[in-house]
Write a structure and sequence with these properties.
single chain; 162 residues; alpha+beta; Mannose-Binding Protein A, Chain A; eight-stranded mixed beta sheet; 3 helices; lectin; CTDL_fold
């Protein structure tokens, strides 16, 4: 008894692409599910981690980077309002590295839209307040500049599309 091989039949390219996209979407959903199970929150195509402990700005950023994330970069009014709802002083990914008053985000982008609280930024009492926290929860303009060595809660952000 002999067997002959059937001719190789490859599925159409469209089917392969569709199957790969479906696999990619499944894997993405599984990754998002894992983050949600670890306490991350999903909002507008990003995942957010709101800390329950306090660290300095640099330590907070290091934690976020270890999670393949970064301190939150606020791009929209909706995202700004999202960060205020936790009602705790939280670091965001904004700082002044140059002492020139030029605020930049952790990804290197310059600050264009801001939500500074009344009278902020102000380098209160001549101190170097080069990092930014969400402080005035009741106000849309809730940002405050404070020294980076102080300890705060923090918010990490990760793109949900990975």
């Amino acid at each position: 008894m002999t067997f002959s091989a059937l001719p190789d039949k490859q599925p159409p390219v469209e089917e392969i692409v569709c199957r790969n996209e479906t696999d990619d979407m499944y894997n993405l959903r599984q990754q998002i599910k894992q983050y949600l199970q670890r306490g991350w929150l999903y909002f507008q195509d990003s995942l957010y981690y709101i800390s329950s402990t306090k660290k300095t700005w640099q330590e907070s950023r290091k934690f976020c980077l270890q999670q393949d994330a970064n301190l939150v970069i606020i791009n929209t009014k909706e995202e700004q309002n999202f960060t205020r709802q936790f009602e705790r002083f939280t670091w965001i990914g904004l700082r002044n590295l140059s002492m020139t008053g030029e605020w930049t985000w952790v990804d290197g982008a310059p600050l264009t839209n801001s939500y500074w609280g009344p009278g902020e930024p102000n380098n209160l009492a001549g101190t170097n307040e080069n990092c930014v926290e969400v402080r005035f929860f009741e106000l849309e303009n809730s940002w405050n500049d404070i020294p980076c060595h102080r300890e705060n809660f923090w918010i990490c952000e990760k793109d949900a599309a990975f």
